[in-house]
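Same chain as my last thread, 395 residues:
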Amino acid sequence: MGNETARVESLLKRGVAEVIVEDELRSRLMSGEKLRLKEGFDPSFPDIHLGHMVGLRKLRQFQEMGHQVVLIVGDWTAQIGDPSGQSVTRPMLSAEQVKANAKTYMEQFFKVVDKEKTEVRWQSEWFGNFGLEDVIRLTSRFTIAQMLAREDFSQRYQSNQPISITEFLYPLLQAYDSVAIKSDVEFGGTDQKFNLLVGRELQAMIGQRPQNILMTPLLVGTDGIKKMSKSLGNYIGVADPPEEMFGKIMSIPDELIHSYYELLTDIDDESLLNIGISLHSETVNPMDLKKQLGLMIVKNLYDHASAEEAEEHFRRTVQQKELPDEISQYPVSAENACLKDFICEAGLCKSRGEAKRLISQGAVEIDGETIDDSNFSVSSGNIIKVGKRRYVKCI
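reply #2:
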């Protein structure tokens, strides 16, 4: 197998769940044709975690072979949201919110994907002048039966839960994005398969060459059970500080080590195979593999020095249970002396509800002792630890 053939095979196999149509895309890659790679994002949620990074790394690999990434900012659909209120995942955003979220997203996106080789397009370029005639023409190409083939729509329909017309429109609008930029390959997770296929169908209907589809696996989160998700709290953010990122990687269950190496690092296939064998035969300490994994990921998203400092921070504060050199400080007063109020105000959790949950789970210590009373009174000089890595000193 020649070098180019082997490279294409790795591109289509490693870290890939499904390709539609694989033989066709393989042929296009081998031909030397420069492909337009579509990646869209909803600016309702600007943060990227390592689950998203699986697909972004694949985009970068295509870039390195000379192909063109086209990043679509879903600014037009984000400003519509879901007026029916049925979809909590589509809040209606102002133009200012969209721009702010897009800026945050792109700062994280370009930690992985080469900015200089990316074309950024905004949906409003083509939807800004979309009229009622255009909407009717677009919707006339698809049937309600086709929409109900989508699993979540079908389940809601069968259980008599409402589905708004707006929700039916979103797959069509995403499909039109493919037409607008003349997409050759669209990327997404396996949970996006229906929407990706609609884009392929619409292109064929209007005479464009149908895009190929490359779907990446859904990365399991730090809980070892469900897909990585910010709403589930089992995520590792691309923008997390190096120490926090390294610490979270060290917390993943041992059974995720092999898949994290496969999906999130560039180690060669032989080394990946050896990791799997050594884990199965229990001839390696999983913690050593996780440390190396943490170093690789932090180095890729930050730099070598940050990765080494993060490892040293973990060694001192978790393995040797020393306090970090620098601990943030926050003033305690009569108004916030209650433990749940204090750790919430000090930024160690997002809400008082989360604070109560962490305290009840034994995840909060004061001066080295676990506290399970959310109404415990803190005082100046106390050092509070939440989880394994977050500290604050009361002043």
